[in-house]
Amino acid sequence: MLTRQLEVIPAVDFLGGEAVRLERGAFDRIVARERDPLAFVELFAAAGASRIHVVDLDGARTGRLRPELVGAVVASAAPARVQASGGVRSLEDAHALLAAGADRVVVGTAAFVDPEALERLARELGDRLVVAIDVRDGRVVTRGWTIDTELTVDAAVDRCAAAGVQRLLATAVDRDGTLGGPDLALLERIVARSGVPVLAAGGVRSEADLAAIEQAGCDGAVVGRALIDGRLALARLFARPEEPEASADDDGLQARMHTEGA
Questions:
Q1: Do the beta carbons of residue 184 and residue 221 sit within 8 Å?
Q2: CA 205 to each of CA 80, 94, 157: distance values in angstroms, whole numbers, following the listed order
Q3: Per-residue b/e over 138-157, b at no fewer than 16 CB within 10 Å?
């Protein structure tokens, strides 16, 4: 059954000037691509999404911030708000993306440099900060999921709690882009341990998955490939209760994205 309480946040990942979907975060495993990323942003906004999750994969890998990219996305997304990530390595970087128009900034690598950096981020950004806990084999990964750390999930959550972080994004890296279903055990663990709103990502493939994510206690879900493949219908996800569920161009979305190997 489709949930109306969970916030569903479409994801658009930018790489080399295109929108792409990676499998398990591997840069050499692109499963779909589109040459006009802003067209996706506009489509999601027109469908009624209240927020769009934007990832600068080039920035995540290299640490080079691109506020101009976020600004272009914000302009295309209106009136939807933008949750921006990729390349944030400092508080100054986060402020630059907020100045470009982002509503929230997602920070991963910079959040786990040292406790003082995390405390400063949480103190100065408040509820506009989302800390990404990206997990592979029970450990946190950073720098665009290219670096494995020794930081456990529990330790990462505890560090965020001690710093006063108000919102987390939990991603099961090995499920991302696979349509293999969410890691509900991971989500339940992070929700229970953190005591703050948690967004889920990785593996979502159906409305049943969204309902399970909500049952796990999450406040929202970031969804990418399931929307592109048509497994989740924009019209059903974002139609207001008083409006018919036929306003979103799902066929147009699927037609635009070229599936690799198809």
A1: no
A2: 23, 31, 26
A3: ebbbbebbeeebebebeebb
Which token pair is 92?
A: 């100054």
- How many residues can be counted in the chain? 262
Helix axes of 115-125 and 153-163: crossing angle, nearest 10 degrees: 50
Model confidence pLDDT, tens digit, residues 24-58: 656 666 666 777 889 889 999 999 999 999 999 88
Convert 211-244 to b/e letters by CB count within 10 Å (16 or more is b). ebbbebebbbbbbbbbbbbeebbbbebbbeeeee
- Domain 7-259, architecture per CATH: Alpha-Beta Barrel (3.20)
| Backbone torsions φ then ψ of 24, nearest 5 degrees | 55, 30
Active centre residues (catalytic): 13, 134
The answer, yes or no, to whether residue 252 has pLDDT greater than 80, is no
Cα-based distances in Å from 25 to 21, 30, 142, 202, 219 = 9, 9, 11, 10, 23
pLDDT in tens, 148-169: 899 999 999 999 999 999 999 9
> In what helix (H) or strand (E) does residue 117 lie, and over which residues does it extend?
helix 115-125
Runs of H (alpha helix) within 18-114: 37-47, 57-62, 67-77, 91-99
Identify the residue whose tokens are 């591997």: 26
Helix (H, G, I), strand (E, B) or coil at 175: helix
The β-bridge partners of 148 are 141
Report d(CA 60, CA 24) in Å as an integer: 15
Identify the pLDDT of residue 229: 80
